[in-house]
Amino acid sequence: MSTARARLAGVTGHRLFWPLVVLLLLLVANVIYRPSFLSVELKNGHLYGSLVDIVRLSAPLILVALGMSLVIATGGIDLSVGAVAAVSGAVACLYISKQPDQNSLAVVLTAVALGFGVALLLGVWNGILVAGIGIQPIIATLILMVAGRGLAQLIAEGQIITINSDPYKVIGVGHLLTLPFAIVIALAVTLLVAVLTRRTALGMIIESVGGNAEASRLAGIRSRRITFLVYVVSAACAAIAGFMMTANVSSADGNAVGLWVELDAILAVVIGGTALAGGRFYLGGSVIGALLIQTLTTSVYAMNIDPQTSLLFKAVVVIVVCLIQAPAFRARFRRRRSVPVTPVEPVGTEKEQVPA
Amino acid sequence: MTTTPLAARPGRAWWRVPPRHVPVLATAALLLVMYAVGVSQYQAFSNIQVVFNVFIDNGFLLVVAVGMTFVILTGGIDLSVGSVVAMTAMVSASLLGDGLHPALVLLIALLLGPTLGFAMGCVIHFFDIQPFIVTLAGMFFARGMCTWISTTSIPITDGFWTTAAQHRIHLGENFVSISVLIALAVLAVGAAVLAYTRLGRNVYAIGGNQQSALLMGLPVGRTKIAVYTISGLCSAIGGILLSFYTLSGAPLIAVGMELDVIAAVVIGGTLLTGGSGYVFGTLLGVLVLSIIQTLITFDGTLNSWWTKIVIGGLLFVFILLQRLVGIRTK
């Protein structure tokens, strides 16, 4: 009995338990609303269905959330990802729109390389500000968040660049081996990041820098180089996400591409159990967080609720998930459940350990 | 040769300016330079009305920035301000449309923001969740409420509102609106609270070092909840001023305003880590942002996106300056 209870406590105490429960609840709600929700069918060798759509649409968010997880693991934050996505998308689309043959594969590859290169430069800029000059991450990336949007509009000269390029479109809506191409990219990047961080010492090094940068430096880790690196990786992920978003609609709008994606990505990371204080990161959790957010958005669309009102639901879900995961909230709840507990530990002791 | 000691002396006197005043002075200098450039380039710029218009157009921004200064001084951040401004304007417009008495509408509208701020402050304090996440949720919530009330813009035709919007207080040949007076009043109250009250000292103490503040026996929890409530109140007042200015409530108004506000506070010399900064600096920060916009409007050939790029560049310069000042004091 007690072992079963302990096991149950172990399951409910797992950091991914509540996010998964919420995800499941959302899916069940969708099935009740529309029974055909779960059906996935094979048409012309491509997979179609609501579930596939949700995963395909969440691909950009997954990518951004991956980069964001690494940044947050070092105790930083990257607010500029949305702007970086907009800039890289705008650069790629601008290059393609200037070419005579927009359908040529070479043109698209050059465009993507160009956009990627610009994004890497922006990542380097963030990295220098944070790791080199030592500016607080939230402000350092705020600069690019504000200026980057202006930059994207400057590149597009305030216009929405529309392109007509089939190879570029593939990034957003194409298929590969029955799966949508966007899912394949997201999966590949996820695996790449997971292997690089979890099968080598890199992940642990990143976590140690997040735990205490100075101590890691004394232990022989090049903290600054690691901090620099994660911002570049984050910008690279944002760039791929930017290509997907612009390819989805075959146009680049400097104002709209990746708007608020940084907030969604931070949410996804936090829902996945990574603390904003740094020192730990969970890639799987971030992916589930991103899926949860996209499922929420899609369900709201599917249930004919005004998309803007979906923000209300998002607020509720965010607060509920964060509350359930907060140690202080759990401690309170637990105390209330088991009433006759002898001298209650003051909440203050737990709070003092957490830096503001 | 004899000039060297003479030159050195004023230099030394200049360094005697406390380091914490340097960012504010730099902002003031920048503001003067920008104004001088404006006056030298455009004849109409020297008209005093240009200055008054800056206040008329940005009164609501100023009010919200005062609230944000409190939050940032404690080392927190409030992302919900833009949405709360929009929600307040929406609620007022919608209730006025239903024929409610303006005084009652004003009361309800002014209560909504602080209530949300209080709730967010409680969650931040009692459950130890980062302000960033909590106020982000608040931002989503308030924006969602806006569209839930109405997806389209609601015009305001109420007599009290239109009088408040159109009434001109003449100062010589020029005029200001009622909103400007309200904004300046909020600014004065905010500055006084921070400088002369116990709450103000607590705010600085918590921003300097929360742990020490707690050990000193300062009411950390109460103060933290108070600053988010103050920020909510300022956003609500800002929302009312915005509804005076536009005479409508639109669900997508003031999107991204939180960034402008944070930028203004940072340019005004307040450290985002908390503990150092002044409401007066925030006023200068807001003025710098609005003068940039005015200059770009006067120029006519520059496009609106240059505003964003210039603001980003200024942010960079000021953060670098703060960093340098910080290194020197160490």
Automatic annotation (TrEMBL), chain A:
InterPro entries: ABC_transp_permease. It is a multi-pass membrane protein. Pfam families: BPD_transp_2 (PF02653). Signal peptide: none annotated. GO terms for molecular function: transmembrane transporter activity. Keywords: Cell membrane, Membrane, Sugar transport, Transmembrane, Transmembrane helix, Transport. Its main location: membrane. The chain crosses the membrane at residues 16-34, 54-72, 79-97, 103-125, 137-156, 176-196, 226-245, 257-276, 283-305, 311-329. GO terms for cellular component: plasma membrane. It is found in: Cell membrane. This is Simple sugar transport system permease protein.
Automatic annotation (TrEMBL), chain B:
The keyword Transmembrane helix applies. It is a multi-pass membrane protein. GO terms for cellular component: plasma membrane. It is found in: Cell membrane. The chain crosses the membrane at residues 20-38, 50-73, 104-127, 133-154, 175-196, 225-245, 278-298, 305-325. Keywords: Cell membrane, Membrane, Sugar transport, Transmembrane, Transmembrane helix, Transport. Pfam families: BPD_transp_2. CDD domains: TM_PBP1_transp_AraH_like (cd06579). It comes from the Bacteria. InterPro entries: ABC_transp_permease. Its main location: membrane. GO terms for molecular function: transmembrane transporter activity. NCBIfam families: PRK11618.1 (NF008630). PANTHER family: ABC TRANSPORTER PERMEASE PROTEIN YPHD-RELATED-RELATED, INNER MEMBRANE ABC TRANSPORTER PERMEASE PROTEIN YJFF. This is Simple sugar transport system permease protein.
